[in-house]
Design brief:
Blueprint lengths: L2 H27 L6 E3 L14 E8 L3 E9 L1 H10 L9 H25 L5 E2 L3 E4 L16 E11 L2 E11 L11 H4 L9
Antiparallel strand pairs: 1-6, 2-3, 2-4, 2-5, 3-7, 6-7
Helix pairs in contact: 1-3
Length: 195
Amino acid sequence: MDAEAITQASVESLRKLLRDASVVQASQYFDGQDVTLISEPPDHQLGQVLARYIAMVLLTCEELRIVFKVHFNPEQIRAYRQTKRAADTDLTDKQLVDFMKELSNQMGGRVCRIFDAHQISMGMSVPLCTRGIYEIYADYQAKTGAITKFGDFWRLEGPFDGIYCSCYVELLSKNDLSGIKAEDEEAQEGELDFL
């Protein structure tokens, strides 16, 4: 397989891994309820302002860098939390932002664990939050060369109505990452390690 084919296979594998990790983690975070992936949200495009807030984490290793974002409106998360009888103190915008920052943290953590299972150590930032309007400054333009760059976005439908996820990925090496799959961790769900 030539270098271009390896890079394209890595890009497609990473797209699937990030999407699958977001679905599995969102389902767990929202009490095991079903979460559906909408891979091409109608009437939206990458780089568009999708919601009022963005919770994000930055993931890095020698092979790549990922900016992983969760776009949401506090009203929809508040409505979900009210159905779960959350206390009024847990329904303020600040608490809802923290709730979604933790979701982005858990999604990023899942990605890190998947890479770790493939002997690739990945670091992760603390979860950050910013206004959704800043999405207009994001540059998702795909590039190939010494560094391959690409962006992706999708919608998750579930008990929270719908939230958007987006990512910007920079491949820093020409290593083949197409063998890294989200299923590796799912197979270990529910297993306990005793020390």
